[in-house]
Amino acid sequence: MPELKQFGDLYPADFDRHPVWVSCHGVDDGQPWYDAIDEETFRPFTGALPVSQADGMFLVRAAFELRDGSRLRGFITPAFHEADLGVLSPHMFVGERCFRFWGGMFGVPADVRQAFYSALGKGVKAVFPLRFSAEPGLATGAVAGWVEGFYRRSQEIQVEY
What we know:
The protein is an alpha+beta fold. It has helices spanning 12-17, 85-88, 110-120, 124-127; strands at residues 5-6, 20-23, 41-44, 58-65, 71-76, 91-94, 97-100, 130-134, 144-147, 150-153, 157-160.
């Protein structure tokens, strides 16, 4: 059986060992252990690189650069369109903690946003806009972009700080 991890249990060391993780749901049906997984279960991708969004849901190691030039790491999900931040879903590691910028209908809670700034020891103007890109050679399609803040979708996409 491969190494299986829940989405929320992925840490920087996991991406050091395996730069690409694949969602088991819908990809590994037929495996004897498939009944033990759910939509949040990922495993290291062991196939040929680069991966494509057309072949499944992947989490790909990525680099982030803050407005002040600081560099951090994290992961993204390859998308068909660069403007689709909800699919790209950039996640950035600050220490061992993972922060997301796309909050969907409910947004990213204020206490999580504050924890992000506290963990960085920086304010909004030093952080945003930030850039991200998948490590070269890992994925095709839309694998880079920028983030202007924490996003929430109501009738329109809104940016919060």
